[in-house]
Design a protein that fits this description.
The protein has 277 residues and is α+β, with helices and mostly antiparallel strands. The chain contains eight helices and seven strands, in the order ααααββααββββαβα. The protein is globular and about 55 Å long. Pfam families: MDMPI_C, MDMPI_N.
Length: 277
């Protein structure tokens, strides 16, 4: 696949998820917009407002002028304050206002993506407040495709309407999360040099990966099958995503986890599994 084809594949994945979200929300009754999601402090309405906020910023729209209340317990740092502002600004909006704004923002963003003249490697700004950075255009699209698919799944769980677990955005998300596994095992969980940890994920996006920690303490991930790894963690795809994206703690999904080998190491890895900033 060429770089330009990769760019288009990420745009297609993003499009698939945002269109699925608008279709999902169309029949939702007004009171369901206040259902809590697994994003701390956020309702269905808040997740949709977050999508609007990020896409609007990518379009170059000015940040809203708004003062956050001081009693939002889930807002615990500067990054959280940054992403909360456009969400809180829309908490007084009706569902029809929010979904109309989402649809209009998606139309504008789709047009901007079609007309973009960026090369895949051109550096562009990733909007994340204190965590903002310049990233290649293709990387921005990759992250956005993964983010929107994860948010679609947040909405589906809250609305009890499962689906699209193997959508194009799911495959993008898989690769993004696999990229972070070596850091989880080697640095954050502190697995010693020479350690191997195998992850067996079942379901619509199943895979087997092994993280190895080398003599210098650096982790790598590959598709090889290891006989007798130090630890083996088996879980389903949806649980893998929920844990890696910081939606649930391991103890809340203990019935979906199976361990082999060093149980203490497995527990330590899962305790540091969230890749959410």
């Amino acid at each position: 696949m060429t770089d330009n084809q990769t760019v288009q594949s990420y745009i297609d994945a993003w499009t698939h998820s945002v269109e699925a979200i608008t279709e999902l929300l169309a029949p939702v009754p007004t009171d369901s917009w206040n259902r809590p999601t697994e994003c701390p402090g956020w309702s269905v309405r808040d997740v949709v407002s977050h999508i609007i906020g990020v896409e609007s910023e990518l379009l170059g729209d000015p940040r809203p002028i708004h003062s956050l209340p001081g009693d939002l317990r889930h807002v615990t740092g500067e990054y959280a304050r940054y992403i909360e502002l456009p969400v809180d600004k829309r908490r007084c909006h009706t569902p029809i206002e929010v979904i109309s704004e989402l649809e209009y923002t998606v139309i504008r963003r789709s047009r901007a993506l079609r007309n973009a003249r960026h090369e895949p490697g051109d550096l562009v700004r990733w909007p994340a407040g204190p965590l903002s950075e310049d990233v290649p255009y293709v990387e921005l699209l990759r992250r956005r495709a993964g983010d929107v698919w994860v948010l679609e799944q947040d909405l589906r769980r809250a609305l009890r309407t499962p689906g699209n677990l193997s959508a194009p955005g799911a495959l993008v998300t898989r690769d993004l999360l696999l990229q972070g596994l070596p850091d989880v095992v080697a640095r954050r969980a502190g697995a010693p040099a020479g350690t191997t940890v195998a992850f067996e994920v079942t379901g619509p996006v199943g895979f087997l990966r092994t993280v190895r920690v080398d003599a210098s303490g650096r982790g790598t991930v590959d598709e090889s099958v290891v006989l007798g790894p130090d630890a083996r963690i088996t879980l389903d795809w949806e649980t893998f995503v929920r844990l890696a994206c910081g939606r649930v703690r391991p103890e809340a999904v203990g019935d979906r986890l199976r361990f082999a080998g060093d149980h203490e190491l497995s527990t330590r890895v899962l305790a540091h599994f969230s890749q959410k900033p």
